[in-house]
Design a protein that fits this description.
Elements: E1 3-8, H1 19-28, E2 31-36, H2 44-53, E3 57-61, H3 75-85, E4 89-98, H4 105-122, E5 126-131, H5 134-148, E6 153-155, H6 162-170, E7 174-177, H7 187-195, E8 201-203, H8 225-235, H9 240-255
Parallel strand pairs: 1-2, 2-3, 3-4, 4-5, 5-6, 6-7, 7-8
């Protein structure tokens, strides 16, 4: 059985003392590949250095919406250059809208549109962060699709309602579920997880955040993506092997991964 964790942040300081042990545990859990997200372009070097150590790591480059004040006239060019500089870059992001922790919508949407344009130019998928912003994000995407053309990608760590889930499925997105789906009160997320077609479903940890049950409250890590897979398989009334196969195939399709 092979699993792919499609969203990690193992460059964070909390992991630096036990990366080798971390790898041993994810391998024992059946995780054969990881996609490392990027909060801001200055992280690129540290992410690249980890990928040099672990051949099963691909990564992204982009700017998180909560860091959009760091955007300058040179940022788009820098992301473009970095994305072209290493064949292990498989996506642009993470990017998106977050109206839960910030209210600077105008600035966030300009930064998001600029990164969508980079992804379109490079024909790479996008990793989308969306928190309390589904309706404006849907409108932004619809306008961009109409004016510039569609971009493929994933709604990561998805926490939306079933109705919102259908919006982004209709726009062509994959939907990725994290440990939140295992939480007792995540009723709407569980409903959303049941309606996503098997060819659009992805799994992730978003580590070090949001450890799934039974590890909730602890530091999250890539090996715990197996708990997400097990829970989703039960929720969707399928076998763990089938869900692993489907989500791994989907990740390879979206990110153009080749498992050796």
């Amino acid at each position: 059985m092979q699993l792919i964790d499609t969203h990690v942040h193992v460059n964070f300081d909390v992991f630096q003392e036990d990366l080798i042990l971390l790898q041993k545990r994810w391998q024992e859990a059946g995780v054969v590949h990881l996609v490392h997200s990027c909060v801001e372009p200055t992280e690129f070097g540290s992410i690249q250095a980890i990928a040099d150590k672990f051949s099963e790591l691909s990564f992204a480059v982009g700017l998180h919406p909560l860091d959009c004040e760091k955007w300058t006239s040179q940022t788009a060019e820098r992301i473009l250059e970095l994305a072209k500089s290493d064949p292990r870059v498989v996506a642009i992001g993470e990017m998106g809208l977050d109206l839960y922790k910030a209210d600077n919508y105008e600035q966030q949407q300009k930064v998001l549109q600029a990164q969508l344009e980079i992804a379109r130019q490079l024909d790479k998928p996008v990793i989308i962060h969306c928190r309390d912003a589904a309706a404006p994000l849907r409108e932004l995407f619809e306008n961009f699709w109409r004016e510039r053309g569609p971009v493929r990608g994933v709604m990561h760590c998805w926490g939306g309602t079933p109705e919102e889930t259908k919006w982004f499925l209709d726009l062509g997105f994959y939907i990725s579920f994290s440990g939140i789906v295992t939480f007792k009160n995540a009723r709407q997320i569980k409903e959303s997880a049941c309606l996503v077609p098997s060819d659009r479903l992805l799994i992730e940890t978003d580590c070090p955040f949001l450890a799934p049950v039974p590890k909730r409250g602890k530091r999250n890590e890539p090996s715990y993506v197996r708990y997400v897979a097990e829970y989703l398989a039960s929720l969707r009334q399928t076998s763990l092997e089938s869900l692993a196969r489907e989500t791994t195939n989907n990740a390879c399709q979206l990110f153009q991964l080749s498992l050796g």
